[in-house]
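ugh finaly. both done.
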Amino acid sequence: MNESVLIGRAEKFLAQIKKEDLKIQDEAAAFMELYFHLKDNLEILYEFRDNMELKGYKAPYRSLNKYGRPQYAEMKVEDLHEVSRHTQFFRMGAAAKKNILDRVKSSIASHKIALGHLEEYASLTCSSCRSSYRSHELSNIKNGKCECGSTDFEITRNPSGIYRLEILEYLPLSGDYMVKMSELSPLGREAFRSLVRTMKQEKRGIVKTLSLVIKVLEDERWVRKRVNIDAQDPLNYEKKIRETYGANARIEFMQFHRKKPALINEKHTQTALALGYVRHAEKLVEPLIPRLLEETLKNAQNLQVYEEAWENAKNLAKKSAEEWEDDKSLVDDLLSQILQKKGLSDLRGVMDPSLIADIQKRDNLQKEVLLEIPRVLLLWDLLRYYLSTSYDRRSKHSGPFPYLRPSLDTNQLKAFQDFPRRVVTLLRDSLNESLEYLPHLESVISFKFTMEKKTQGLHIKMDPAMGAAVLNIKGQVEIERASEIFKVPVKDAKKQKSNLETFQKPTTRKAQKFLKMVQG
């Protein structure tokens, strides 16, 4: 396929996605239509990505190395101009390739997030054979038909699912993440960067590959070879070399290459999630800010007068900006004049002290709320996902957080350390979010990982009831409240709690003996 045709087709497809309206309904037919439409889009996007990578779109500027001014001969001015024109042409083409591949990858990440949240949101049951399709099993429904051939389904919302459908409308499904980032407010951009930094929290360096120089006996001669091996844990490298190159192979040199995977290990997924949570948080707090300001400020009316004066000064400055070189200085002068007329500033331009204090309180409140709420919501959703799923599920299925690390080390757990009580209380009491303040969020997740290792191979179900039990044991949350958070029956949570307590401290001799056998 011609490259311009490939780019044109991809841009047309992404433009078509942008026009589509994402509506989530509680009807089985509408839900299936949306789910499989996104699934079909994802398949087409994968095809675009593979074709582009095959054609070298990942590194489009490499071909420019052969263009440019030769260093070994003199050239006429006309020839230099021609070379420069051709170089600019190829550079524009390379930029177009890089940009379209970037947009396609962004769109893929957004579609995977949307599908993961929809899978968590509801399950489908065949009306004929009563077969149930949950989570990732939804993709097993081929062409809208059950395995029995029926096309009639019933939809059931998953009360324990880890989803936040409100973020889906803000995802860059058409790959337009740069446009959506530019639409953020200054505080929104700061919140976006903060959220991306949280998701970039890196694991300490682990060995990814090894480079070795070995000596091998071939035709009674010692020959040196360079070998690269993918690191596996555990792996006896010397044994591997001898199995591959014979018993006489000797290692002369070994170099370890390390990687530092992040909490969510893909940049487009980080960007899409950050945009979704920040825009959702902005919408949440929009009606909340006025009430909070009224409770906090000494004189909210004076602050409103100040804001109106500032807007007027800014508009007046735009009209006469040509006469002034410094726009900010002009705005400040005009603002000072307006405030003097309103009695909120003296003749020297010094504002009323109580107004200055209220402005500072407003700025601090907006910063705290808009910066912290999206981060708290993301960390809480990640906590619930880790507590209610098994290691195998997190490894094999992307879920609502694609590229999420199935387990975290102590360095990655630092992302969960700062969990502000005031913001949690605000979300719970004013916005009806089902959150609970946990002073040591990271220790709760770490405890869950420890229990997963101890119960490995014992067919202990890692489900939302297990999450409620962990929240009760390590988070010191009442069992009834923990069950309410994970939307599970209290009796199921108590049963899982009993299982965990048995593995922590077996009470009977039989249980102690069994645990000793399990642990080897």
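ok and the 2nd:
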Amino acid sequence: MKKTNWLLLVLALVLSMFLAACSGGSDDTSNSTDDADSEETTESEDTSSEEGEASGEQVLNITDSAEIPTMDASLATDAVAFQWLGSTTDGLYRLGENAQPEPGIATDHEVSEDGLTWTFNLREDAVWSNGDPVTANDFVYAWQRAVNPDTGSEYGPYMMGGVIKNAQAVVDGEVPVEELGVTADGDYTLVVELEKPVPYFESLTTFGTFLPLNQAFVEEHGDQYALEADTLLSNGPFVLTEWNHGEGWTLEKNQDYWDAENVKLETINVNVVKETSTAVNLYDTGEIDRTGLSAEFVDQYRTSDDFKVEEEPVLFYLKMNQENEVLGNVNARKAIQMVIDRQSMVDVILNNGSIPSVGHVPQNFTKHPETEEDFRELNGDLIETNVEQAQELWATAKEELGMDTVELGYLGGDSEVAMNMDAYIKDQLEQLEGLTVNVQSVPFKERLQRDENMEYDIQNSGWGPDYIDPNTFLNMFVTDGGNNKTGYSSEAYDGLIEKANTELAQEPVERFETFLEAEKILIQEDAVLAPLYQRAVAQLWKPYVKGVITQPMGPDYTYKYAYIEGK
């Protein structure tokens, strides 16, 4: 009866797909592959492969529902920051169509026979927006800065530790930062030494943490670097020219970009809008060119020519802090996993093509190297909704803990949709007898900080891939991992992840099957997370917006080739 009343209530709620996450996105991130409902599917390459010519004013107007936390590539951890870093800065490579790396500052590279030494040849016509040339030293400085303990980077140790030679030793303070395995052989040759062969290293180089930095400029601005438009440099397609914190920002075409002739947009205007209804009104009046939809908005616009649904390899889940006495109990965690009705969540709350999540590697993301079977299909559903069994597990947990009633905090977002989603999850969790859930709705930037400090009991979180490999989802939860933040530690799990990334690094079949085994431990045996859903995006796009490429990792959108035609 309680659940039925709730589902009737949410039919009247105004929702969108913009839910807060860590790397998986802020309150506004979208990208795609395809959706199960074929009549509602628009594949990502459709917008980028349309042939046409730019005409009229080349201005794109969009919204985001969260502020950019930082534009410092060493400190960025979320999809909002990575989106606009990727729009303003070129790394060695950048993602083009079909998520394939294409030349950025690097024109090409060679790999040694043992897979340990990568030599990148850099273009000589790339410059920073202050006129300085982009050189190999900019990469050396940026990568050293990212792993330097004094910087306080979260992603530097996470992305480079165990990958770049000596990175972990630098992080641990065992060797000086100058011994990191990255050197400049002259101004335009970058030599990278790896700890071990890394199958996905080229993909890694497109990620935001690996972007170059102009040392003189960064050091000139000190702790104010990248916090304002005038304390930031660009070497990519666009320059951030205006940044009104909490309100929005403006990007303009970088006239000095090495590939400026292929950049058609002159301006991208982004306004921060937290309410879905407001964003839809702005779309309908022609003030913005894209908006996200969900719930009754999907039904209202489903037949519109502007309507698109796209599936993403982005997962949302509940993180449970095992330093909390209750959540340190595996039966309590399993009860939380099983009590949530995920199908109703995606059908009624989201209504945007999202699907229930049943593991921690998304569907349609990676395939078995020999059989070509999808990872998710091979490992199957690792959890199910079963309220009766959840109650039994919860009763066992309370008995083990010596408790009759339990009170837990729940860390959620402050956007309209996040608060409605969190209210639904609170309602679901409180089906467990004697449980009270206290929801705390905070801004995205504060939630990132509280996650970093593990100042939460339960948290609605999300993750999008940093590279295309199961490791990007599964290595998060190794003991003391930079993105673990749950207190989870398992020798068995750590051993499998380590084995996959060392002795099996060049054995693709055995490596893949080791990841299958590790996922079962993470979700099924140890119940570290309570999976919620794999996100899809229901959107309206103005038909005159062409050439936008959606990506499965890094920036959700590539705007380099976007243009306006026939507005």
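summary for the 2nd one i guess: The longest helix spans residues 508-525.
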